From TrEMBL:
The keyword Nucleus does not apply. Pfam families: DUF6596 (PF20239), Sigma70_r2 (PF04542), Sigma70_r4_2 (PF08281). Residues 18-78 form the RNA polymerase sigma-70 region domain. This is RNA polymerase ECF family sigma subunit. It comes from the Bacteria. NCBIfam families: sigma70-ECF (TIGR02937). Keywords: Sigma factor, Transcription, Transcription regulation.
Length: 409
């Protein structure tokens, strides 16, 4: 890759969200902002090799995108609405009242993740408008058709326009609830990369985990005092640190107890631990869901060996988490920790109580299979492994479960 190509790629990575957000604020239209930003980057690809990379790529791209947007508005308003066009060109309209925080990109995040939009639409719109991913890239990431992604984005934009969803940061009293909605979108993106749900894709999608981390870092920079933002970033970093150890050379998922801990990314672990310590030191502030999940991961990544894990601390953290999130998946994960502390028989009783809620979840059956194996109940364990294999989401999971089942006597 040439120096100019690298500069364009770096500018797209660093400036896309800023350019789109700036244009959205100025023109009040996501379609215009997206199209003009894309045209500006296409112009950079054409002109920078001949003209050289500008000293301030972001400013150059924003200026170029503004001109592209104005050209489009002029074309669309050729026969009428000249006054509106003049306002767009000269930007004489009074500034919109600001919310709790003033940043164009933060406004864009809250617009893309507005609760009036379906979750699938929020994810697609966020990855397109903030991440700069193309429609084909988003379609590949979530194993859906490009036309489906296009429709989600188009309908989301139409809903924003029709419902007059404001392009602004929520008021201070609404901010916590709205931030949690944004974090839910980013966590969903990260989880799809952490362990892809489809059988016909890589089991671990670094492109998605990296994008989720990048966007969470952006929100962290914009909301540095928000504990749950810090917690989610720490959770992502501590999970991503184990990525290279999670799939074997043969394509099998490697569970935590079998991973090569020497292959974990020490820098990401150190950063994640630092964020967790900072949140624990925040006096008088009760930790939220993501902060507790990050703390659990900090315990796991602090142990040099699975046998060194402080399981009593893990169970205590899950006990805290259950008060915030009583979902059956949290209860299942707590039972896995209980098995290490109190034995598989106690854990199995807790797991069996979740059958009605988790019968269609592969991890429920995989957990039962492992506990039954440890109790010497091979026949029942095999049946549970068979059910887990049937429900497994991708080939790496299937390979791991099949090997464990086949190791039964």
């Amino acid at each position: 890759m040439s120096d100019v190509e690298e500069a364009v790629t770096r500018a797209h990575h660093d400036e896309w969200a800023r350019v789109v957000a700036s244009l959205t604020r100025r023109f009040g239209d996501l379609d215009i902002a997206e199209e003009a930003a894309a045209e500006a980057f296409a112009t950079a690809v054409e002109r920078w090799p001949a003209d050289g990379v500008p000293p301030n790529p972001g400013a150059w791209l924003t200026t170029t995108a503004v001109r592209k947007a104005i050209d489009r508005i002029r074309r669309e308003n050729k026969r009428d609405d000249k006054h509106k066009e003049a306002q767009m060109v000269y930007d004489n309209t009074p500034p919109e009242p600001l919310g709790a925080i003033d940043d164009d990109r933060l406004r864009l995040i809250f617009t893309c993740c507005h609760p009036a939009l379906a979750m699938e639409a929020r994810v697609a719109l966020t990855l397109r408008m903030l991440g700069g991913l193309t429609v084909p890239e988003i379609a590949r990431a979530f194993l859906v058709r490009e036309t489906t992604v296009e429709q989600r984005i188009t309908r989301a934009k139409a809903k924003i326009k029709a419902a007059r969803i404001p392009y602004r940061v929520p008021a201070a009293e609404d901010l916590p609830a709205r931030v949690s909605g944004v974090l839910a979108v980013l966590y969903l993106v990260f989880n799809e990369g952490y362990l892809a749900t489809g059988p016909d894709t890589d089991p671990v999608r670094h492109d998605l985990t990296a994008e989720a981390i990048r966007l969470t870092r952006l929100i962290r920079a914009l909301l540095p005092e928000d504990g749950e933002v810090a917690g989610l970033l720490a959770l992502m970093l501590l999970t991503e640190a184990r990525r290279t150890a999670r799939v074997s050379a043969s394509g099998e998922l490697v569970t935590l107890d079998e991973q090569d801990r020497g292959a974990w990314d020490k820098a990401l672990i150190a950063e994640g631990h630092r964020l967790v310590r900072e949140r624990l030191a925040a006096a008088g502030v009760a930790p939220g869901r993501y902060q507790i999940l990050a703390a659990i991961n900090a315990v796991h990544t602090s142990a040099r060996d699975i046998r060194d894990t402080d399981w009593s601390q893990v169970v205590a953290l899950y006990d805290q988490l259950v008060h915030l999130d009583s979902s059956p998946i949290i209860a299942l994960n707590r039972a896995i920790a209980v098995a290490e502390l109190d034995g598989p028989e106690v854990a199995l009783a807790a797991v069996d109580r979740l059958e009605d809620k988790l019968a269609g979840y592969h991890a429920y059956h995989a957990t039962r299979a492992d506990l039954l194996r440890r109790l010497g109940q091979s026949q029942q364990s095999r049946a549970a492994y068979d059910k887990a294999i049937e429900l497994a989401g991708n080939t790496a999971q299937t390979a791991n479960l099949t090997r464990r089942r086949d190791q039964l006597r």
